[in-house]
C-alpha cells in the first residue's frame, strides 16, 4: 500500500516511512479456508517514563480486561484487528495488525472526534515519553523493517 498525499500532524512521519505491509490472512467465513484476504502490519516504538511504579500502573491499565472497552471498540472501528505491546526496560514495541483499508489519517480523525479516546490518550501520556529521535509532537514512532526471513 503506497502512502497518499494526505497528512495528519500526529502521523505525518509514519507516512514518510511506510513500506508495503500487507500480509495474507486466511478467511474462514463460510468455511472457505482457501479464500485469502489481506491485512497490514505496523511496528512502532515508544518509551515509558523510567520509573518502576509508573511502569507498574501503565501495565495494570493494559492487563487482560483492564483496557477501557470503549477504547478497544474504537480500535476495532478504526480497522485495527490486533494490537500487541511488548516492553523491555522502559522501551515499548507495538505491533498493529489492521484491515487493508486502515490509514493513520483515518484513525487520527476518528480519535480527535471521540472524547473517550482523548481522555485515554491524556491518561496514557502521563506514563509515556517520546523516544529520543521522535519529532516534536510524535508519540509512537513507526519502525522500519531491516530484515525478513521466510515467506
Describe the structure.
By secondary structure, this protein is of the alpha+beta class. It has a single domain, classed as Alpha-Beta Plaits, CATH 3.30.70.1090. Helix content is about 30%, strand content about 25%. The protein has 5 helices and 6 strands, in the order H-E-E-H-H-E-E-H-H-E-E. The chain has helices spanning about 10-15, 50-60, 70-75, 105-110, 115-125, and strands spanning about 20-25, 35-50, 80-90, 90-100, 130, 140. Strands 1, 2, 3, 4, 5 and 6 form a 6-stranded antiparallel beta sheet that branches. A hairpin with a 2-residue loop joins strand 3 and strand 4 (about 90-100). The longest helix has 11 residues, at about 115-125. It is globular, with a radius of gyration of 16 Å. It starts with 11 loop residues before the first helix and ends in a 9-residue tail after the last strand. Residues about 1-30 have low confidence and may be disordered.
The number of distinct structural domains comes to: 1
Specify the CATH architecture: 2-Layer Sandwich
Q: Specify the number of helices.
A: 5
Shape: globular
Summed up:
The protein contains five helices and six strands.
What brief labels describe this structure?
151 residues; alpha+beta; Alpha-Beta Plaits; 26% strand; globular
List the helices and strands and how they pair.
Blueprint: H1 12-17, E1 22-26, E2 36-48, H2 52-61, H3 69-77, E3 80-88, E4 91-99, H4 104-112, H5 115-125, E5 128-129, E6 141-142
Antiparallel strand pairs: 1-2, 2-4, 2-5, 2-6, 3-4
